[in-house]
Amino acid sequence: MFSLSIKSSIDQAHATRSLAYNVTQMTQTMLKSNSRSHLDDCVELLDQSLDQLSKIHMKSTSEDDIQTWLSAAITHQTFCLDGFENEKLSKEKATLDANLRNNIQHISNSLALHKSLVTEQANTLKGKGSRRLMSDDFPTWLSIKERKLLQTPVEELETSAKVALDGTGTHKTISEALAFVSLAGTGGGRKVIHVAAGTYSESSLGFSVKQSNVMLVGDGKGRTVITGSKSASGGSNTFSSASFAASGDGFIARDISFVNSAGRPWKTYSRTVVMQSYLDGIISAAGWYPWSGSSSLNTLYYGEYSNTGPGASTSGRVKWGGYHPSMSVAEASKFTVANLISGNSWLPSTGVIFDAGL
């Protein structure tokens, strides 16, 4: 039944993607403009949803990954739907809006069905993850050839392109190098781009779900820096404001610093937990600010646990139904590295120092 549910979700998503593409083309013709719009973002988001749903349908994978991909597919289509929130809809856009709502509900049903099918074995492995590490601390899904790529000095790597601001490489921008390796193609193999030391701030930097196995290699943390300055206040929407967006499978980056603006909790079921942190006196006594009006204050989940510092007192905090000023150990444990992101299964191979639990 679960497999049939996923297949149905894929079929519906394909139909919705085709409709979104047709509406995009029609809108561009009517407006006589080729500038990127929310509908273009919508097509890309639906491509990503289809990719995630197809992985579930075609691959034997872990319970954690299935849940992640289903949740991501819902998130992508919800974001697409949000773009029509304050817009007067044409007949075609109204149909697209209805299709998206139906898709989201259908995938949500698949997610609920999946949760009901989780076995006792999955419960036993909870917190341990399913990506086992090899004896040399690399995940099993990383091939021997690609492990060597992570260990080989940059000057010894066989690269597809080199980016350098001073013109000593094959390209001066990362965007140009990504476009080049996309057109050149390597038969599905790994495309390695060396990004020399420097700070790179480029518009719409990244690649789509159709471009896979890209690897960026910098000259070291803090030496090769990718950043950006796009924001909603500057005319960009949230989807297109990332400093770097890697949607294709198999992306690897090493020896590079990515600088991005901080995310924020939003919408009806937003979740944010501040735990075991030092809070300075700059923090307002109320602690939290509503997203929009009071409609979501009982459905959100904002929590605090074991914080210290002059701003850590919760006595003057907001009195919302969804706010939890004194989380229990059991509640806080759900948001640890081990439980929230299955960190024990993949973080050790990165060399990052972390605390798995409270």
UniProtKB/TrEMBL annotation:
Family: In the N-terminal section; belongs to the PMEI family. In the C-terminal section; belongs to the pectinesterase family.
Residue ranges constituting the Pectinesterase inhibitor domain according to the UniProt record: 1-113
Record-linked InterPro entries: Invertase/methylesterase_inhib, Pectin_lyas_fold, Pectin_lyase_fold/virulence, Pectinesterase_cat, Pectinesterase_inhib_dom
CDD domains assigned: PMEI-like_3
Superkingdom assignment: Eukaryota
Origin species: Thalictrum thalictroides (Rue-anemone)
Gene Ontology terms, MF aspect: enzyme inhibitor activity; pectinesterase activity
Name of the protein in its database record: Pectinesterase/pectinesterase inhibitor
GO biological process, one term: cell wall modification
Record key words, sorted: Aspartyl esterase, Hydrolase
Pathway the protein contributes to: Glycan metabolism; pectin degradation; 2-dehydro-3-deoxy-D-gluconate from pectin: step 1/5
Pfam family of the protein (one): PMEI
